[in-house]
Specification:
Blueprint lengths: L3 E8 L3 H13 L3 E5 L2 H7 L5 E7 L7 H9 L9 E5 L4 H9 L4 E4 L4 H79 L5 H10 L1 H33 L7 E3 L1 H11 L1 H4 L9 E5 L6 E3 L1 H25 L6 E9 L3 E8 L6 H6 L17 H12 L3 E7 L3 E9 L2
Parallel strand pairs: 1-2, 1-3, 3-4, 4-5, 7-9
Antiparallel strand pairs: 6-8, 9-10, 10-12, 11-12
Bound molecules: adenosine-5'-triphosphate and magnesium ion.
Length: 406
């Protein structure tokens, strides 16, 4: 439930108090909702989320302390600041109020200016606090991304040396073996009467097969080492710090690298079978962009799809998770990238909030709700493109990215 920034809930059983406070708050530009009992306040809080609550302590049936206790024990309402209104001058009660989580109290009969001043201070504090939390989250996300980049770059760097000496030695090995084979053939040619021991060994090791197989093995080792070098190169590309200017890059390479980095999550595990990735790459020229940032977008979209699969597979053991990625050139000047998953899809409500910062449906600790809002910024603001989501609940979700090729 989104907090209504300007809404104040006033809870008091005395209609007269409600009227005065209602007028003061409204005159000063606040929206006001009133409740004349604790029960009615709790009911209203099921459907609204005010920025602040003014709560009377002494009320029949449920008193303000009990209302506050219930508010603080519910995740949905625990962060709403509560100011107690009390005729009590009793210090023990004031302490009790603070212990229950109140942020302030006002003693009755109240001065209108004082009430207003205290309300405004609390609203301001709340606002500052939220801004602080937001920046903290953003910092965390930025740190996470740069830490991942550094880790990848570090590994790519460390692996580079051993890989290049294996590649270098393999070349020599190929030459040396060829020379040894040639020498062996010379022996065969010039040694007329082959001693029994040698013929026996030739049979045991199946020399003909060995000579045929050895070059093939070396060739496949060459292919393997080339593949490792490519992977290392793309990892270095993935993690390279984007300069302040755009550069031309191959989008398909970016997607492939991202898939490679996610490959451990695509494999079958105890939760889901192997995730099928269907690629339908069209003819795309190199695109003028910030490649590292685009990779971050692919990463966020693909990671979200995999998250959904993990949930869905728990419910349906016959489910076959699929992601399809297609690309095409549109009107000669736009690259279109469509990432589809056959997961849950999402409700209209989720679709409406999808790109909002901190919007998440995942449990605490799993999602921060930043992935899509950052992706949206990267595509629209940084690249002048569009990012759209099409989804039907229960069926699947399609994210469509369009960016100008330069
Ligand atoms: N492919 C998808 N299918 C269904 N729901 C999705 C999909 N992608 C995103 N969502 C919904 O959108 C919400 C916001 O996504 P977003 O990536 O911004 O945040 P998050 O994944 O929850 O957290 P974070 O990415 O910061 O770790 C998700 O919590 C989820 O409810
Ligand atoms: Mg996400």
């Amino acid at each position: 439930m989104e907090t209504q920034e300007n809404l104040i809930l006033i809870v008091d059983d005395k209609i007269h108090n409600l009227e005065i406070l209602f007028d003061v708050m409204q005159m000063n530009g606040h929206q006001v909702l009133v409740a004349d009992s604790g029960e009615s306040a709790l009911d209203k809080l099921k459907i609204i989320s005010p920025a602040l609550i003014l709560l009377d302590v002494m009320m029949p049936s449920m008193d303000g302390f009990e209302v506050c206790r219930q508010l603080k024990s519910d995740d949905k309402t625990k962060d709403i600041p509560v100011i107690f209104m009390t005729a009590l001058t009793n210090t023990a009660d004031k302490i009790k109020a603070f212990k229950l989580g109140a942020v302030d109290y006002i003693t009755k009969p109240f001065q209108q200016e004082e009430v207003l001043a205290r309300v405004n201070v609390q609203l301001k504090l709340r606002n500052l606090n939220q801004q602080l939390q937001k920046s903290q989250f953003q910092l965390m996300q930025a740190e996470k991304i740069s830490a991942l980049g550094q880790l990848v770059a570090g590994i790519a760097h460390e692996v580079k040396n051993p890989v290049s000496f294996i590649a270098g030695n393999l070349e020599h090995t190929e030459n040396y073996t060829q020379e040894l084979v040639d020498l062996l053939k010379l022996y065969q040619k010039h040694l007329q009467n082959t001693p029994e021991e040698i013929t026996h060994t030739i049979d045991t090791i199946d020399l003909d097969f060995l000579l045929e197989d050895l070059p093939k093995m070396i060739a496949s080792m060459n292919v393997g080492i080339e593949r490792i070098s490519d992977i290392m190169q793309s990892l270095r590309n993935f993690s390279r710090k984007d300069a302040t200017t755009k550069k031309y890059a191959d989008i398909h390479q970016g997607i492939d690298t991202t898939l490679m980095i996610l490959s451990h999550r695509l494999k079958a595990n105890e939760i889901h079978p192997r995730i099928e990735v269907i690629k339908k790459y069209g003819d795309l020229p190199e695109i003028e962009c910030f490649p590292g940032q685009l990779n971050q977008v692919f990463m966020n979209l693909l990671a979200n799809a995999i998250d959904v699969f993990e949930d869905k597979a728990k419910q349906n053991e016959y489910f076959i998770p699929q992601i399809s990625i297609s690309t095409e050139l549109v009107n000669d000047n736009n690259a279109k990238i469509i990432i589809y998953d056959n997961g849950y899809g999402m409700s209209e409500e989720v679709q409406n909030s999808l790109f909002n910062t901190f919007f998440t449906t995942k449990p605490e600790g799993k999602g921060t709700g930043l992935g899509l809002s950052i992706s949206y910024k990267i595509i629209t603001e940084t690249h002048g493109g569009t990012l759209e989501c099409f989804s039907s609940e229960g069926k699947g979700t399609e994210f469509v990215i369009q960016i100008p090729i330069k």
